[in-house]
């Protein structure tokens, strides 16, 4: 639901459109064979598809069980599926209106991983806290959701082999922090059109997060347009813009991404793993168990994305 973005992103989009270059011109087709090495001109880290960009440092022991942290702090517009803001501390009480957080706990119970949850930025202030978790999930966070201490902690966690999962408005977070933009695949939210039903195409069915999904499935979302467009990532799913009845043009004028409008991808980043999806706007997407509306497929996608980023399943292969 965001309409304001970082000035750098807006300037980039204006430049692209003025030159007649669609955002999809940045696409590497999902076939980039290796990593962007240390000294990457944009983000200064090792990132891409080369497993050599990953370094565990022995920080994680899966024999103790799989545990993830769901972080849903909002410092701007708040998606309805998050419900009311949470009290300080770890695992504060949830109400029935905290739909997405409750759903993540349920999905963990059903799929073999424990879930803690918080919106308290002080809980992210120490990497020693984060290293208790095999993956950290940003669930529709917004804008400046981290302070300086939490930013430093997240970087140390990822550099120590941590797993990151970004869901939906994780892309509308920390706009002015280039390292975080790189964690998202070198991408940022720009705008979206009206929420509408379209067809998701599973473009890579070899990845554990997409294996078993249909080639095409219906889903309703806001279909985020991105500036910059993700690079050096493995694209896993995209939306077929031709199936969007209201088109892909966004509220800020972005024309959409044409034949390659990605909605999920993965990469190694700065020693860690990053799996992200722009999907997850509708509350029923987290609770329905049906396939005709795509909810069951969405949940399957994020469950295995989480488990792969956490190291419990093969990652980005």
How is this structure best summarized?
With 317 residues, the chain is α/β, with parallel strands linked by helices.
Can you put this structure into words, describing what you see?
With 317 residues, the chain is α/β, with parallel strands linked by helices. The chain has a single domain, classed as Class I glutamine amidotransferase (GATase) domain (Rossmann fold, 3-Layer(aba) Sandwich). Helix content is 21%, strand content 20%. The chain contains seven helices and 13 strands. The chain has helices at residues 7-18, 99-111, 127-130, 148-159, 178-183, 284-287, 295-309, and strands spanning 35-36, 47-48, 67-71, 114-118, 135-139, 163-167, 189-191, 196-202, 216-221, 225-226, 234-240, 261-269, 272-277. Strands 1, 2, 3, 4, 5, 6, 8, 9, 11, 12 and 13 form an eleven-stranded mixed β-sheet that branches. α2 links the parallel β3 (67-71) and β4. The chain starts with 6 loop residues before the first helix and ends in an 8-residue tail after the last helix.
Considering the chains and any ligands shown, give keywords for the structure.
11-stranded mixed beta sheet, Rossmann fold, two-stranded antiparallel sheet, disordered N terminus, alpha/beta, 317 residues
């Amino acid at each position: 639901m965001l309409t304001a973005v970082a000035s750098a992103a807006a300037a980039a989009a204006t430049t692209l459109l003025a030159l007649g270059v669609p955002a999809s011109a940045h696409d590497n087709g999902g076939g980039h064979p290796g990593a962007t090495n240390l000294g990457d001109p944009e983000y200064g880290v090792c990132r891409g598809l080369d497993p050599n960009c990953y370094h565990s440092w022995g920080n994680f022991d899966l024999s103790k069980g799989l545990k993830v942290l769901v972080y849903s702090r909002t410092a701007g517009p708040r998606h309805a599926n998050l419900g009311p803001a949470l009290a300080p501390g770890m695992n504060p009480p949830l109400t029935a209106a905290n739909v997405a957080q409750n759903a993540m706990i349920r999905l963990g119970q059903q799929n073999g991983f424990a879930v803690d949850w918080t919106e308290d930025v002080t809980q992210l202030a120490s990497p020693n806290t984060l290293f208790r978790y095999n993956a950290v999930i940003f669930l529709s966070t917004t804008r400046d959701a981290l302070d300086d201490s939490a930013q430093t902690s997240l970087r140390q966690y990822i550099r120590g082999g941590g797993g990151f999962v970004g869901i939906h408005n994780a892309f509308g977070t920390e706009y002015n922090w280039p390292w975080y933009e790189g964690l998202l695949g070198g991408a940022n939210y720009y705008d979206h059109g009206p929420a509408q039903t379209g067809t998701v195409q599973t473009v890579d069915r070899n990845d554990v997060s997409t294996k078993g999904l249909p080639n095409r499935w219906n889903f309703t979302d806001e279909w985020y347009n991105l500036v910059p467009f993700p690079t050096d990532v493995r694209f896993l799913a995209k939306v077929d813009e031709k199936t969007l009845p209201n088109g892909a043009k966004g509220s800020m004028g972005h024309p959409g991404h044409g034949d390659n409008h990605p909605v999920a991808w993965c990469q190694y980043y700065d020693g860690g793993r990053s799996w992200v999806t722009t999907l997850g706007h509708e509350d029923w997407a987290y609770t329905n168990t049906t396939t005709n509306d795509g909810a069951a497929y969405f949940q399957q996608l994020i469950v295995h994305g989480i488990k792969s980023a956490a190291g419990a399943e093969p990652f980005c292969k």
